[in-house]
Design brief:
With 493 residues, this protein is of the alpha+beta class. The protein has 3 domains: 3-135, Histidine kinase-like ATPase, C-terminal domain (Heat Shock Protein 90), CATH 3.30.565.10; 148-330, Aminopeptidase; 337-489, 3-Layer(aba) Sandwich (Aminopeptidase). Helices cover 30% and strands 28% of the residues. It is built from 13 helices and 19 strands. It has helices at residues 3-6, 23-34, 41-62, 95-100, 102-114, 175-186, 197-205, 253-267, 283-290, 343-356, 402-415, 430-439, 479-489, and strands at residues 12-17, 70-78, 81-88, 117-122, 128-135, 166-169, 209-215, 221-228, 236-244, 272-278, 294-303, 322-330, 337-341, 360-364, 379-385, 390-397, 420-426, 445-450, 458-464. The protein has a 7-stranded mixed β-sheet with strand order 6-7-8-9-10-12-11, sandwiched between helices. Strands 1-2-3-5-4 form a 5-stranded antiparallel β-sheet, with helices on one face. The longest helix is centred in the first third of the chain and has 22 residues, at 41-62. The protein is globular. The termini are far apart.
């Protein structure tokens, strides 16, 4: 398929009337494009079924029986993903009605189970959108043949300190070596797309990822630190996928790669880098702190317990998810902003902002009244990440229906046994501060703040769905981090 088509906002669009008789045309439309990506018959059947369920749900709930509206079906390609987006401008969703409706409830559950990711996006006056994601098929895993020293029972020989790798930006040709590095560092417990060189190349080419890699004298990738971007040209990068070949641990490669990315980000005008550092050990935390990164939050149960580091330790975390510390490293001067914080979080967030040394005016919002918006419909989207078994509810615009929308989505995620549900709220309005206060009544607790995320600062809250947290297993590298953990744990029940 022409590369320009793949890089477009959508590959194809079909507009149909809100009548059940047109559902087969929509199914044929979606399946015909899915065939370009070599989905097997079993997956094509799922695509056909979820398309039917989504359109049927809209017809039944978004339009009166006598009303004939229109429904747009879009096919979207993203690296590693085939997306069916279905939009309408029918009646705003009454979540309580959908929750009580047996047919609607079963249809939504079916879509969530058959799709790899499922999102509902409220577009306000522009209607609403359902997005169903199927991960693109792979014929086989890449050749992950590893050197003899990585065979079970054998020990790696560390390289001498004089073997100093060169740090540079990744090139698409490095993708296969990066996949091999992932295996050396994590076995097969890491995020899946890193095992597929073609997916890595696609993300690099679309400007959604950039990496600093360490290259040794044999031209092997022996270290990596990635930057992820929500969209090409974003002003803040998510720093992650820090990994070092076990032979090169102790060579300060993480610090060198992070410093390289900091200088690169400053040179292209990126405001800052945020990252998550695991707490099963303090190595990556110490590396962040040494470069000037500041703790901005803690996610108590972000990573599944199966996530392991080869050749670091054998600590057993059976039954426990691992915590992560949020960090922000400023790389360029950011805009002046005003942030509104509810009283429950003001003291701890002020301490974070004081350490960040950013141009911010902090205002404690009045939360004694209802959310200060009238006749405004919220813009809220949610996404489920099956590999982590976490969900994220993202609020773009706070309306008077915000708490009801989040309550329903929270209930659905809990019923589907999602371990952790995060809520992300903008901090640029008093309404969002009031909403954060109300979310504590639903069981959400503080996680932290992510500066300059989506053109402003975002508050991150967390809801643990019967997940056990043992603070003794959370290893924090700094006094500020330990103080933050103590404050967050006060609300953990």
């Amino acid at each position: 398929m022409n590369k320009r088509i793949l890089e477009s906002d959508f590959m194809a669009r079909l507009t149909l009337l809100s009548d059940k008789n047109f559902i087969p045309q929509a199914q044929t439309f979606a399946v015909s494009y899915a065939r370009y990506f070599n989905f097997p018959d079993s997956e094509l059947q799922k695509i056909e079924l979820i398309t039917e369920e989504a359109i049927l749900n809209i017809i039944q709930n978004a339009f009166d029986e006598e009303e004939v509206g229109t429904i747009d079906v879009k096919i979207i390609y993203q690296p590693g993903k085939f997306i069916i987006s279905i939009e309408d401008k029918g009646i705003p969703v009454d979540f309580r009605m959908l929750e009580k409706s047996e047919h609607s409830g079963l249809g939504i559950l079916l879509m969530k189970n058959l799709a790899d990711e499922f999102r509902f996006v409220n577009l306000g006056k522009d209607g609403k959108r359902i997005e169903m994601v199927k991960y693109l098929p792979e014929q086989t895993l890449p050749d992950m043949t590893v050197p003899d020293e990585l065979k079970p029972g054998e020990t790696l020989t560390p390289v001498p300190a004089t073997d100093i790798p060169v740090i540079r930006l990744i090139s698409p040709e490095d993708a296969e070596m990066l996949s091999r590095l992932v295996y050396r560092a994590y076995g097969y417990t890491y995020v899946s797309f890193y095992y597929f060189p073609e997916k890595i190349r696609q993300l690099l080419e679309k400007g959604l990822m950039m990496c600093a890699v360490a290259i040794n004298g044999q031209n092997e990738v022996v270290g990596n630190l990635s930057l992820y971007f929500e969209h090409a040209g974003a002003k803040v990068g998510d720093s992650g996928a820090a990994m070092v070949d076990p032979r090169y641990r102790g060579h300060n490669l993480f610090k060198s790669m992070k410093n390289f990315l900091r200088n690169y980000s400053a040179s292209v005008g990126i405001y800052g880098l945020y990252s998550e550092a695991v707490t099963i050990h303090t190595f990556s935390q110490q590396g962040n702190i040494s470069l000037g990164a500041v703790e901005t939050g803690i996610m108590l149960a972000f990573v599944e317990e199966k996530f392991t580091f080869k050749k670091i330790n054998n600590e057993q975390l059976t039954g426990l998810r691992q915590a992560c510390v949020l960090y922000y490293l400023k790389t360029s001067q950011e805009p002046q902003r005003t942030v509104y914080i509810c009283g429950k979080f003001f003291v701890v967030l002020k301490k974070i902002y004081d350490n960040l040394d950013m141009r911010r005016e902090l205002i404690m919002a009045d939360t004694s009244t209802d959310i200060p918006v009238k006749d405004v419909q919220s813009l809220i989207s949610s996404v489920f990440k099956p590999e982590l078994n976490v969900a994220i509810i993202s609020v773009s615009l706070v309306g008077e229906d915000a708490i009801d929308q989040i309550r329903l989505q929270l209930k659905e995620f809990c019923l589907n046994k999602v371990d952790v549900i995060y809520a992300e709220l903008p901090l640029d309005t008093p309404a969002a501060a009031v909403l954060s206060d109300r979310l504590t009544g639903l069981g959400f607790i503080l996680s932290g703040v992510v500066p300059e995320y989506r053109d402003g600062d975002y508050l991150k809250m967390q809801y643990l769905n019967h997940v056990r947290v043992d603070p003794a297993k959370i290893h924090i590298a700094s006094d500020l981090g330990r103080e933050l953990l103590s404050e967050i744990m006060k609300s953990y029940v």
